[in-house]
Specification:
It is a single chain. 42% of the residues lie in helices and 20% in strands. The protein has one domain (2-136): Alpha-Beta Plaits. The longest helix has 12 residues, at 125-136. The protein has seven helices and four strands, in the order βααβααβααβα. The active site is at 120 (pros-phosphohistidine intermediate). Residues 2-137 form the Nucleoside diphosphate kinase-like domain. Its cofactor is Mg(2+).
């Protein structure tokens, strides 16, 4: 079924000039860009977005990292796009993410307190609805 998901090109992806390469993969896969914008989220937005991670050891470094520069927020649509984008992105840890995925091809461990893994994609229809509301209102 046609659905929508929130994709973020995180600050590391934007800073490294990988936005175009990442968008090219999303477009080549055939998903539709419904809305896209450059954002500098404040802490409140990030606290809502990452509420499930509050209290974890990487939580504060994560919020700091996400405020280190702009991200690109994308409302992306297509049949099974939630699952499909997560497959394009690869697993959370960029060191072991499969080659051929965004994280596997462009990411690595930089020895920091937080995994800088280039992109975010909603993990369920419920998360997608919640996160799209946070980032696009
Ligand atoms: P994402 O899955 O989009 O949302 C949570 C983020 O926290 C994740 O991307 C990584 O950037 C980061 N993260 C998740 N797990 C860890 C971990 N074990 N150590 C450091 N950072 C993590």
């Amino acid at each position: 079924p046609t659905e929508e998901t929130l994709v973020l090109v995180k600050p590391d992806g934007v800073a490294r000039g990988l936005t175009g390469a990442i968008l090219a993969r999303i477009e080549a896969k055939g998903y539709a860009l419904v809305d896209i914008r450059l954002v500098e989220p404040d802490r409140e937005v990030l606290e809502k977005h990452y509420e499930e991670h509050a209290g974890k050891p990487f939580y504060e470094p994560l919020l700091e990292f996400m405020q280190s520069g702009p991200s690109v927020a994308i409302r992306l649509a297509g049949n099974r796009v939630i699952e499909g984008f997560r497959s394009l992105a690869g697993t959370t840890d960029p060191t072991t993410a499969a080659p051929g995925t965004i994280r596997g091809d462009f990411g690595r461990d930089w020895g920091l307190a937080v995994q800088q893994n280039l992109v975010h994609g909603s993990d369920s229809p419920e998360s997608a609805a919640r996160e799209l509301e946070i980032w696009f209102g």
